[in-house]
């Protein structure tokens, strides 16, 4: 199978690419390395990694038009600076529009997206959150722009799946509570544990579900979470159990 992965050098993208290459797929990836790490991907005969931005429509059209992927897995996202609305809008809205439209134009078979649980707002009206919860991406440029991106996936008319996520963790995780705790503890600094609870999933569990989706399982919107919450510090010593996609519930507290 031919798979185009946006954000291929990120936590989720690179983990997916490892699994796709291991089973014999041909992979094209794009990354601008804003948050992705170069050492997340090793050179491979069936991998082409392009250093560029999905914001450039001509780049996206040329890559999708030449490669003609069976599946596009769109993990690229901007979130680094909560005050940088421009970058969030460019990558998450314009970039996603470019990806969705290219998939439509070149008749891509499947399009997979990753939405943030922050699309339900920072104070969800129900716990656990169900798919019936109103979309309300307040107080977050990231959530607003990712929500626009999710709409573009739907609007493309391509067979699409969106995974709505809370906190994904794994060896390549560079943002969120775990790296913060790790950095502080490694420097001998104290950590502050609040009442906040998070729903953590392990990136390899997510990646396996995404590969199933790429192969044709499921359609539409899914929550992907453990269904259990933990104090933000707990996963330092224990990894959550394997998880499965759910049509009914997600995190009890919102993540990234
Ligand atoms: N990790 C989480 O906890 C979490 C939670 C909710 C949603 N998500 C979503 O899951 C997806 C993957 O997240 P992740 O944890 O792998 O993040 P990540 O930062 O590790 O990966 C995102 C990748 O996209 C790249 N990128 C950013 N802007 C780009 C652009 N304009 N063009 C090309 N590449 C660009 C970055 O350099 C990075 O490599 C994202 O869409 C994110 O919104 C993640």
How do the SSEs run, as a string of H and E?
A: EHEEHEHEHEEHEEHEEE
Which sequence of strands runs across the widest sheet? 3-2-1-4-5-6-10-12
Number of helical segments with 4 or more residues: 6
Helix proportion range: 25-40%
CATH superfamily, called what? NAD(P)-binding Rossmann-like Domain
Structure description:
This protein has helices spanning 11-22, 57-67, 85-105, 141-155, 177-186, 203-214; strands at 2-6, 26-31, 47-51, 71-74, 110-116, 160-165, 167-169, 197-198, 200-202, 220-225, 230-231, 244-246. It has a single domain, classed as NAD(P)-binding Rossmann-like Domain (Rossmann fold, 3-Layer(aba) Sandwich). The chain is globular and about 50 Å long. It starts with a strand and ends in a 10-residue tail after the last strand. It is an alpha/beta fold. The chain has six helices and twelve strands. Helix 2 (57-67) packs parallel to helix 3 (85-105). The relative contact order is 0.15. Nicotinamide-adenine-dinucleotide binds next to helix 1, strand 2, helix 3, strand 5 and strand 7.
């Amino acid at each position: 199978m031919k798979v185009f992965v946006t954000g291929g050098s990120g936590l989720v993208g690179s983990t997916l690419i490892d699994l796709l290459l291991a089973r014999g797929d041909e992979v094209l990836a794009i990354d601008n390395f804003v948050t992705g790490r170069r050492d997340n991907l090793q050179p491979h005969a069936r991998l082409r990694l392009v250093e560029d931005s999905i914001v450039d429509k001509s780049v996206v059209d040329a890559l999708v038009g030449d490669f003609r992927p069976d599946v596009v897995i769109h993990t690229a996202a901007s979130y680094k600076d909560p005050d940088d609305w421009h970058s969030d809008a460019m990558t998450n809205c314009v970039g996603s529009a470019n990806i969705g439209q290219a998939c439509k134009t070149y008749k891509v078979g499947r399009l997979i997206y990753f939405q943030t649980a922050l699309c339900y707002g920072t104070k969800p009206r129900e716990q656990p959150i169900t798919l019936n919860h109103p979309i309300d991406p307040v107080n977050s440029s990231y959530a607003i722009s990712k929500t626009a991106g999710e709409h573009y996936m739907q609007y493309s008319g391509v067979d699409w799946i969106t995974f709505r996520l809370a906190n994904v963790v794994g060896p390549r995780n560079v943002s969120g509570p775990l790296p913060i705790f790790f950095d502080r503890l490694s420097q001998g600094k104290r950590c502050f544990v609040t009442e906040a609870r998070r729903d953590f999933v392990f990136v390899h569990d997510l990646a396996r579900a995404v590969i199933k989706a790429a192969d044709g399982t499921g359609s539409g919107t899914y929550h992907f979470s453990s269904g259990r919450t933990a104090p933000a510090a707990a996963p330092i010593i224990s990894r959550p159990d394997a998880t499965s996609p759910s049509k009914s519930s997600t995190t009890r507290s919102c993540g990234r």
